[in-house]
Design goal:
heterodimer; A: 136 residues; mainly beta; six-stranded mixed β-sheet; 10 strands; 0% helix; B: 388 residues; Peroxisomal Thiolase, Chain A, domain 1; five-stranded mixed β-sheet; 11 strands; binds zinc ion
C-alpha cells in the first residue's frame, strides 16, 4: 500500500504529482500548505494552484543523527519558488553537491517505508545539474 | 493607566537532572523558595500562572496545594520556550490592570519525565508538515548558522563564542547544570549534530522550576521585608507572535524578536542600545545567541558579529549577555526558562547575582519559542525589561 505523507499537500494532475497551494485573490500571495483562510490576509477568496516544480535553494542543513525515519547524513533545506512561497523538504543529493542559490527541482517518490510495509510517498528536492544539460 | 509592577521574591531549583522528582515536586520546591525569599505567607497569593510545555493536567493547582495555596484562580499556559515568559506576562498584566495586588508566576519542566514517556532523541512536532520532512530545532539553527557565515561573515570561532563565554559565565552559578569551561577545540571535537552545530553548541536537556512573585507598588512598600532590596519593577512586558512567512522571510531578522524588543523597550522608556546593562536570553544554540544581538537592538542590523568580537557582550563589556551561563550552561527546563531569565535579571539589579554585572540598572529577559518552520508553526518571543 502507498499513502501520502501529509494530507492535502499533493494531488495527481494530468498524470503527474504536484504540490497544491492557494493563490489568494485578495493579497496575491501563494501559500503552502493550504489552510482554512489565507494565512497572510485571512481572505477566503483564492484558488488551488499547482506549485512550480523548480526553485532556488535558500538554505540547507546536513543532520548527522537519525531523525524519525531518516538516516544520516540527512540533507534538507528551504526552497524558494518563483511565486514567493518557501518550502521545506528533503534533498536527495550528496552534501558537497549543493550550495545556497542553486536551482532545485521537486520530485515525488517514497520518503520512507513503515514497519508494516506501507510506502509513504511525498515530495523531495534534487539539484538541477545544469552542466549535464539539465532539468528533468 | 497601568500600575507599576514590582518583583517581591524569587526562587528556583537547581537546573539539571532530577529524574526522581515529578513536575509537581519541582514546582512546589521553586514556589517554596520564592515565598521564603519574599518573606510572605503563601496564603497571600491572589492568583497564579504557570508555564509548562509537557505537564500532566492541573500542574499548577497540584503543586501549589502542597503549600496550602488553593481557592484562587490559577492557570497553566503553554507557549513553547516562551511559556514561562507568558506566565510572567499574564501576572504582570493582572497586577498592572488592577486585577490583583500580588501573585505567582511559575515555570516548570521535566524532560526526564518526557523522555521516559516518549523516548529520547530530537523532538519533532507531531503532525507538523515540516517535521515529517525532517525539520528539527538543530536543523533549523544549522541553517541559521550557515546564513551567519554567508551573510554576516561569521567564522566557526564566532559561532562557538557564545558557548565558550556562557560556559565560563556559569562556573560560579550554584543553580547551573554545567560548571565546566569549554574551548573552541573541545566544542568542535564534540559529536556533530547538524553542520556546523556540535553537541557543545546546544543547550542540554534539563529538569527544573523557577518562580517569581510580583506585586503592586502599595503591596511592595508594605511587604518588602528584605529591606536592603531596591525596588525593581517590570518596566516592559511583551509577548510577540510572528505572522505567516514567505520567501521574503530572513531567519537573521525574526520579526517576533525585533518587534517584541521594540515594543517592550518603548513600554519601559529605554533605548536598547544605550540603556540596557545586562541581558539574559534564549541561547538554545550558540549560533542563535550570535544572531540575536542585532535583533535585540544591542547593535545595528548586520553588526552582531563585530559586537561579539569587541567583547561588549562578555563580562566587563558594555552589555554582558547571559552572565548566568544561559541555557547553554544553566540548562533549559523548557517551561521554567522564561521565568528563570526574569529572576536572573532581578538578581542582577538587586546586586545579588553570583556573576554580577557592576551597577546594572536596566536589564532585558528574552525567550524565543516555536519550531520556526513557516506557517505550520509560528514563533513567539517573550521580552521583559526590568528597571531599578
Ligand atoms: Zn491573502
Amino acid at each position: 500500500m502507498t499513502i501520502i505523507f501529509h494530507p492535502g499537500v499533493m494531488e495527481e494532475r494530468n498524470g503527474r504529482w504536484v504540490q497544491i497551494g492557494r493563490k489568494c485573490s485578495s493579497c496575491g500571495k501563494t501559500s503552502f500548505p493550504v489552510t482554512e483562510l489565507c494565512p497572510f490576509c485571512s481572505s477566503e477568496n483564492g484558488e488551488m494552484v499547482s506549485l512550480s516544480r523548480t526553485g532556488t535553494l535558500f538554505s540547507f542543513s546536513i543532520t548527522r543523527v537519525p531523525v524519525g525515519p531518516y538516516k544520516p547524513p540527512i540533507v534538507a533545506g528551504f526552497i524558494d519558488l518563483p511565486e514567493g512561497t518557501r518550502i521545506f523538504g528533503q534533498i536527495h543529493a550528496a552534501p558537497d553537491e549543493i550550495k545556497t542559490g542553486i536551482l532545485m527541482t521537486m520530485k515525488t517518490g517514497v520518503l520512507w517505508t513503515e514497519k508494516d510495509g506501507t510506502e509513504v510517498m511525498g515530495y523531495y528536492y534534487e539539484p538541477i545539474k545544469t552542466d549535464v544539460g539539465g532539468a528533468e | 493607566m497601568m500600575r507599576s509592577v514590582y518583583v517581591l521574591g524569587i526562587g528556583q531549583t537547581v537546573f539539571g537532572r532530577h529524574a526522581d522528582m515529578t513536575v509537581n515536586d519541582l514546582a512546589a520546591a521553586a514556589t517554596l523558595a520564592s515565598v521564603r525569599d519574599a518573606g510572605i505567607s503563601p496564603k497571600e497569593f491572589q492568583t497564579a500562572f504557570c508555564g509548562c510545555i509537557y505537564s500532566p493536567p492541573t500542574v499548577v493547582e497540584s503543586s501549589l496545594i502542597r503549600l496550602g495555596i488553593g481557592r484562587i484562580p490559577m492557570y497553566t499556559v503553554e507557549n513553547a520556550c516562551a511559556s514561562g515568559s507568558s506566565a510572567v506576562h499574564l501576572l504582570f498584566r493582572e497586577i498592572a490592570l488592577g486585577g490583583c495586588d500580588v501573585g505567582l508566576a511559575l515555570g516548570v519542566e521535566s524532560l526526564s519525565a518526557y523522555n521516559k514517556k516518549f523516548g529520547k532523541g530530537l523532538i519533532g512536532i507531531e503532525g507538523d508538515l515540516d517535521a515529517k520532512s525532517g525539520l528539527t530545532m538543530p536543523s533549523f539553527f544549522s541553517m541559521l548558522c550557515n546564513r551567519l557565515i554567508q551573510e554576516r561573515g561569521a567564522t566557526l570561532e564566532d559561532i562557538c563564542y557564545p558557548s565558550i563565554k556562557n560556559h565560563k559565565n556559569g562556573m560560579t552559578n550554584p543553580y547551573s547544570q554545567y560548571k565546566k569551561e569549554v574551548s573552541f577545540q573541545e566544542i568542535m571535537k564534540s559529536p556533530m549534530i547538524a553542520d556546523p552545530i556540535t553537541v557543545l553548541q546546544c543547550c542540554p536537556q534539563s529538569d527544573g522550576a523557577a518562580a517569581v512573585i510580583l506585586c503592586s507598588e502599595e503591596y511592595f512598600k508594605k511587604n518588602n521585608k528584605k529591606a536592603h532590596r531596591a525596588p525593581v519593577k517590570i518596566g516592559g512586558s511583551v509577548i510577540s507572535v510572528s505572522g505567516a512567512h514567505d520567501s521574503s522571510f530572513d531567519p537573521l531578522a525574526l520579526e517576533a524578536n525585533i518587534m517584541g524588543v521594540i515594543d517592550a523597550c518603548e513600554m519601559a522608556g529605554v533605548n536598547p542600545r544605550k540603556d540596557i546593562n545586562v541581558v539574559e536570553m534564549h541561547d538554545a544554540f550558540s549560533g542563535e545567541e550570535l544572531s540575536a544581538y542585532e535583533m535585540l537592538g544591542l547593535c545595528d542590523a548586520g553588526e552582531g558579529v563585530s559586537l561579539a568580537r569587541s567583547g561588549a557582550v562578555a563580562m566587563g563589556g558594555r552589555c554582558p549577555v547571559n552572565p548566568s551561563g544561559g541555557l547553554l550552561s544553566m540548562g533549559h527546563p523548557l517551561g521554567a526558562s522564561g521565568v528563570r531569565v526574569v529572576i536572573d535579571i532581578a538578581r542582577q539589579l538587586w546586586g545579588e547575582a553570583p556573576n554580577q554585572v557592576k551597577g546594572a540598572k536596566v536589564g532585558m529577559a528574552q525567550m524565543l519559542g516555536g519550531v520556526l518552520s513557516g506557517i505550520a508553526s509560528p514563533v513567539v518571543a517573550g521580552v521583559h525589561i526590568l528597571v531599578k
